[in-house]
Amino acid sequence: MVGTAFLLRSDIGGRHVDLAADPAHGGHASVDVRGPRYGNVPVNVTLFTASGDSIVAVSFSQDFQHGFRHWVAALVGSQRPLGICTGTVLAAPVTAGGADTLYVMYGKIPDGAIC
Q1: How does DSSP assign 27-47, residue by residue?
Q2: pTM given for the model
């Protein structure tokens, strides 16, 4: 198990976002970020240990459009997230033969829609 001390680093079209797991909030952390541009944008998400060692990374392209709310979310665990509002889910094992997986979810929803 990764534990609660880790850093998630996202690069969304050149905009860097770092989130540290917050043990006071069950290991959760979040931030709202204004995207760098509309269109097809490369996204890289990397999970680091508290000491700064890279554990696992995933990369994808996301289509950012005017009039939509977009998200990139991550979860480390042993069970794939389920739900109607998770969006696209990418999975990468945290360590070879380990029980944890990095799940990265991303997607979009029209402004004003409820999910």
Answers
A1: T--------S-SEEEEEEEEE
A2: 0.86
